[in-house]
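We now fix the convention by which a protein and its fold are recorded. These numbers are not coordinates but entries in a learned vocabulary of local backbone shapes. A record is reproduced here so that you can trace the correspondence yourselves:
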Amino acid sequence: MTTKYIRNLLLTLNLLLLTACSLDAELFEKIKSTSEASTDLSLKISDLPTNVPESFPYYGQVQVTGLSSGLSSFSTPALSLQDSTCPGLSINADGWISGVLDKVSGESCEFKVKVTQGSVSVVSDVISLGVQNSLQLTLSQENFSFDSGAPTQNTVLNLSAPAPFATYLDYSIYSANSESSLFNGMNTGKILVPAGATSVVIPLTLQAGLSLSSAEHQTIQLNSGMSGLKPKIELVIPLEFTGGAPAQVFQDINVSDTHICAISDGKLYCWGNNDKYRLGLGAGDQDNRTKPVRVGTSTTWQKVALSSEGTCGLNGGKLYCWGRNDAGRSATGSMVPSEVTEPTQVGADSDWQDLVGGTHFSCGIRSGELYCWGFNQFGQLATGDILTKYSPTRVGASTTWQKISAGGSHVCGLDSGKLYCWGAGSRLQLGNNASVTRQQSVLQVGASASWQDVVAGNDHTCGINAGKLYCWGDNYSGQLGLGAAEAGNIIGAISQVGTASDWESLAAGGNHTCGIRNGGDLYCWGAVSYQSGVWEPTRIGTDSTWSKISTSYYMTCGINNGSVLCWAHDESTINYIGLGEDRAEIAHKPHRVGLSTSWSLPSAGYGHSCAINAGRLYCWGDNSSFQLGQNDNGSLASIIVPQQVGNSKAWQKIASGGGHTCGIKEGELYCWGLNVGFDFGGGGPPPPPPPPGGGGFMPMNVSPVSQVPTRVGTSKAWTAIAAGSGQLCGINGGKMYCWGQNSDGQMAADPATVPLVEEPTQVGTSDKWHAVGISSYHSCGIDDGKLYCWGYGDDGELGDGNNTSSHTPVRVGSDSDWTAVVAGNLHTCGIRSGQLYCWGGSYQGALGTGSMVDASTPQRVGVSSSWTEIASGFENSAVCGIDGGKLFCWGSDGWGQQGNGSAFTGAEVVPIQLGTSTNWQKVSVGERNVCAVNAGKLFCWGGNNNGQSALPPTPGAADPTTPTLITGF
């Protein structure tokens, strides 16, 4: 090719950038230059952005145009990045340079653009990029609840600084439903951010005609745009899409700082902290509950009222109390401190009408008469003294009391439309514009007889008079709603809040207030969420179907269209609101209290966990090797919220390994994550030795990862799969196959000649295998009831009576009734005829026999014959099993795997039962954590350094050491 031909070849490269005109990307083309190709290339490339915020997707396009006549037969120009030190960037055939730079703020990189047409190549000058601080992305609203076909609701994506160039932010929709397109306009997977934009409106409209049939939890997760935890939109789809009522409709709710109770069709449900039996679940049961649990069997509950450590309720007009009973708070009449374990009737009267709970005291109305009992230091019982009352004591002689409300240490009530307050008044909360330590008798507030509602907060009071809102008392956090000008003041005068005259009901908490107006609109003000102050009534969401609201010092719950929604205001309270997890990014917004009971087959791996819910697969925890199966633009961040893997509802089996995961759906085997030792069965050269302590690795000349489930082979006859740190074994058509690292013959091949089994390789010739279990060092399987093991055996884990390794399967005893097997670190356990046996190394009591002596043959664990499940980590000595529906754990407890409420308590050498439940169904033990299913509900506990127990991994925070309910589905 001569210089003349090169000059005649009009290779012009034009940078195309996204403009900010509309949601549809509009490209503009720079004016073409007539300079030579090499010069033109250099000039055009210089227009590319050179400053890139960390994690902000880079976008630009180079275009080749203008072949001269006579040269049109040349091939299409090919573009590539030359000498690139910018990991994450690529250029496609259309000239798009895009990707998320794998660089942090303060770093830089460079590349050149190479264009080749025929035998002619042109390379640009060096383009240098500098990485700046990440833009912070926030959403104006993160939580939504709406029906199919409902009006559009918007949220605004806010950027902390103008976008330096136009780009697209990737997102994914995770759901318990596989609808291909839930939202109008939200099926592209990308959000356009125009150059210079500081905000982008995201419209949300559920498409009509969806087939959702139950309370579905949807998450729109931003996958790119900023470093750290990405913002997400949480959506709750109501139980009915035809406009009907939810399957479970709540009519009343009341909250304390530590527990919640609600009534649905006369049935009482409570959840939260159960210390001192405040949930009323009966003697011996003080376990906390993170989801509603029914109290007794009665269907005639009318009202419930909570104090700090106790509960009272009205049932058929009768008064019942339970919980802590010192200072008379349970109204038993006894001065002796005690604990009332379940609802116990107070007196014989059946004409109770209203009931409220304060701090260590309660009040109620019976046939128009007012009664109070409990702690009385500030005169809050209005009995004219400050003596504790151990049973309901009448207040005054009136028989026309209508409404009563108890705050921290003061009480207000309505009698014939007149307002009265008493008790503590040091913050002017009594409405008489006077500071008093205690008011021991009822005190009328003003002269009006048209009060409709009143609520007493910790140190403030609000009421409704002729539809107008009035507040007074402490305004430290803006809880009076009088605006920023009055923030922090104490207001003694009864002050009108705004001008609205359609207020209907109120609730006052510690430093915040909420109210319902205009037929169902919810407003809150004060300290309504963590570390925030709202100085005026501010609407919560867009729903107009709120019917009830209840607040405590740190918590708020309400009834919206019959469903309970709760949110918390400090970190210590979040676990009590019904989420079952310490998730501040959700807990500080109204969140529906719901629960899936369709979980099955949990699988805990090295630092991540997975489980199947009604055929849908969810994974969470460590994602450093893409083992969570999320097609998330290369994000390696850990995920604490269980995220659905794809849209399939047909998952049958799941196995979580070191940095990889495999699962079976419709008989097909899929794997994803780190291709540890080619354990996807892809073949390739042998890898280097594994790093100390296990973990994943991959030769540089082999594709190291798969971000999404990748099918292994073409068979549709897979029935079982098991994973080690770098190994896999599975059963296909009754035949056993293994592949991966083979350092000890654990893949049933001679490690001296085959250190790595590169693809699924049959073990023996039998086609009657029906169970498999593997660790990082040895494997076991059951063939027609007969148990075989192979691999490392120096500690007796092969069970054949010898302490030697074997790369060929050796039979364990002569029995033919084995039904389950699990291979642990250096031990093995199996079940036959319902009896549990363990053998091998007894490190940290892993054998469960009470002995720390190794055993080279099966040793029976206990005397039970009703064992159904057994599980152990592939590189630790923690073991759990299910016996007659009861869950037992033993062995190591370094991360709280024993579930007994503490960690590092030493080894358990015999099985220890967790709780009293007899409904456990499945259990899986990972490297540090445990996950198990109880009555279809999923629980996890133990190590949480990567969020594998579905809780935020907080530096310095303790791991969850008791079973923690996984919710949000």
